[in-house]
């Protein structure tokens, strides 16, 4: 946010989540949490807040600071719009969700070359893997909602703890690696299993 690297590369997601919750609280207090038009405009503005500064820089119009906070937040708001469409059947939510998907699919390629050249890790391995992952995630999500599958208690329980595991794995791994450093050999599997067990 302030042009400085994160203290830990894995905890940036907590910041995104915190900003999202603050925005949700503000929308709720304004009575706009389920107003599709407001959510749609806000989501599209968040995408533009990432894409426009990059385009202005690329074309030499203005040297604005670039951050990806808006794009990350727009993905969280997509989840809210999808809920309003698929669960609550709110009028206009379908168009709003699909418009946001299109905006994201257009915006990500528009910033990809800039991100790769700068090495800022918004686009890490190239545009194709990012767009493929996005498309697969969207299709799998829509299929799961459409067919109401899978229904699995195990997957539900994993879902409840997966983000906590993601946040907690780093300090656990660092601690274990001090005692059992990775060697690149087959024995690393045991080390990884120990780390996984301790995180759980």
Automatic annotation (TrEMBL):
Keywords: Membrane, Transmembrane, Transmembrane helix. Pfam families: Acyl_transf_3. One of its GO terms (molecular function) is acyltransferase activity, transferring groups other than amino-acyl groups. The chain crosses the membrane at residues 6-29, 36-56, 68-86, 95-117, 129-147, 154-172. InterPro entries: Acyl_transf_3_dom (IPR002656). It comes from the Eukaryota. Residues 5-193 form the Acyltransferase domain. This is Acyltransferase 3 domain-containing protein.
């Amino acid at each position: 946010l302030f042009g400085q690297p994160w203290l830990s590369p894995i905890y940036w997601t907590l910041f995104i989540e915190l900003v999202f919750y603050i925005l949700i609280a503000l929308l709720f207090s304004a009575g706009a949490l389920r107003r599709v038009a407001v959510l749609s405009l806000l989501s599209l503005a968040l995408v533009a807040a990432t894409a426009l500064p990059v385009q202005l820089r690329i074309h030499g119009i203005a040297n604005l600071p670039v951050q990806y906070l808006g794009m990350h937040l727009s993905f969280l708001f997509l989840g809210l719009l999808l809920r309003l469409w698929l669960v609550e059947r709110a009028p206009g939510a379908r168009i709003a969700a699909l418009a946001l998907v299109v905006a994201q699919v257009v915006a990500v390629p528009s910033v990809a070359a800039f991100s790769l050249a700068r090495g800022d890790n918004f686009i890490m391995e190239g545009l194709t893997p990012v767009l493929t992952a996005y498309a697969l995630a969207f299709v799998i999500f829509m299929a799961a909602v459409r067919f109401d599958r899978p229904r699995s208690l195990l997957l539900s329980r994993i879902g409840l703890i997966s983000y906590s595991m993601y946040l907690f794995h780093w300090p656990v791994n660092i601690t274990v690696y001090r005692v059992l450093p990775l060697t690149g050999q087959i024995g690393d599997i045991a080390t990884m299993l120990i780390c996984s067990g301790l995180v759980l």
